[in-house]
């Protein structure tokens, strides 16, 4: 396999005494869509911000095209911004309310001098790519529907000609049919422009549809990662299984026994000892409260952090 376009190694994000992301490693390859899944507060958005250069990593390294950019120095930030762009969770909030769509697109195009021949023409072309007509150039963000605002935000992100887009809940709050349009658009752009996506979502139906691989997060750590089709069919981590078992669309016949998690999500300020999931895990054993399981490869190419991976998953490799 070719070298990853993005490689986060042992990344941590801390805010004071809160460790939001703790020892996370992610590889993203060209043309790939990697899903990042977990409950709100598990650290997904912190990873998105760190990878996009909006928040510094507290520890670990971030390689983009093989170059280490974790130090966050000025030249690195520019290098990063030319390659990685964040599509914000709330598109309307990310668009300045006093600028027209035309100005919102022309401004970054001018700054980057990417389409210096005809900025306005380039803005129109970008809008067309988004399925929006020229008449949108004179509109303000508040005059757009949720789906249109997302398309404009996506067009603005594309003005940087990034190789990687970090999409934070790109379909949240949209009607199901508009969601489908947005996902089709993202996929078409990926294939045409050779983009890679880090696709952050808590919507398992969407993740199952669009991602090649997936990483499941719990309290700031990855607990299971691998090909989406493998994980969704046959989860090895009890938390992955619990997430999937609560979703009727993924498992319409309820072939899986439904797992109702005990208790609340613990505070990341004071994570549980041993396996962070042990107080809520239906198959926890005494060792789970004292010894933290490491993310270890299984023989089908995925990795799981559990002392007792479910029998549905393959055996953990030894050595
Ligand atoms: Fe459950 Fe133990 Fe596995 Fe953690 S390590 S998920 S508590 S079985
Ligand atoms: Mg979030």
From TrEMBL:
This is Peptide ABC transporter ATP-binding protein. It is a peripheral membrane protein. SMART domains: AAA. Gene3D superfamilies: P-loop containing nucleotide triphosphate hydrolases. SUPFAM superfamilies: P-loop containing nucleoside triphosphate hydrolases (SSF52540). PANTHER family: D,D-DIPEPTIDE TRANSPORT ATP-BINDING PROTEIN DDPF-RELATED, TRANSPORT ATP-BINDING PROTEIN. Belongs to the ABC transporter superfamily. One of its GO terms (cellular component) is plasma membrane. It is found in: Cell inner membrane. GO terms for molecular function: ATP binding; ATP hydrolysis activity. It comes from Pararhizobium polonicum. GO terms for biological process: peptide transport; transmembrane transport. Residues 6-244 form the ABC transporter domain. It holds the Pfam family oligo_HPY. Keywords: ATP-binding, Nucleotide-binding, Transport.
């Amino acid at each position: 396999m070719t070298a990853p376009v993005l490689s986060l190694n042992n990344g941590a994000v801390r805010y004071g005494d809160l460790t939001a992301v703790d020892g996370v490693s992610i590889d993203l390859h060209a043309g790939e869509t990697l899903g990042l899944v977990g409950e709100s507060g598990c650290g997904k958005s912190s990873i998105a911000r760190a990878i996009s250069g909006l928040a510094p990593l507290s520890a670990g390294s971030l390689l983009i095209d093989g170059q280490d950019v974790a130090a966050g120095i000025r030249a690195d930030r520019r290098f990063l911004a030319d390659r990685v762009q964040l599509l914000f969770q709330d598109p309307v909030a990310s668009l300045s309310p006093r600028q027209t769509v035309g100005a919102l697109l022309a401004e970054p195009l001018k700054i980057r001098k990417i389409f210096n021949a005809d900025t306005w023409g380039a803005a129109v072309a970008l809008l067309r790519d988004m399925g929006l007509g020229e008449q949108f150039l004179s509109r303000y963000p508040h005059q757009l529907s949720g789906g249109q605002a997302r398309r404009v935000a996506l067009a603005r992100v594309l003005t940087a000609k990034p190789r990687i887009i970090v999409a934070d809940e790109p379909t949240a709050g949209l009607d199901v049919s508009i969601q489908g349009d947005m996902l089709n658009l993202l996929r078409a752009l990926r294939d045409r422009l050779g983009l890679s996506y880090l696709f952050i979502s808590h919507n398992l139906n969407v993740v199952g549809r669009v991602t090649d691989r997936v990483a499941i997060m719990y309290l700031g750590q990855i607990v299971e990662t691998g090909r989406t089709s493998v994980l969704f069919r046959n989860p090895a981590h009890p938390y992955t299984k619990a997430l999937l078992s609560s979703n009727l669309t993924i498992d319409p016949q309820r072939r899986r026994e439904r797992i109702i998690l005990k208790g609340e999500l613990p505070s990341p300020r004071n994570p549980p000892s041993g396996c962070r999931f042990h107080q809520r895990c239906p198959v926890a054993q005494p060792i789970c409260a004292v010894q933290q399981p490491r993310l270890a490869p299984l023989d089908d190419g995925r990795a799981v952090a559990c002392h007792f991976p479910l029998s549905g998953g393959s055996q953990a490799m030894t050595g």
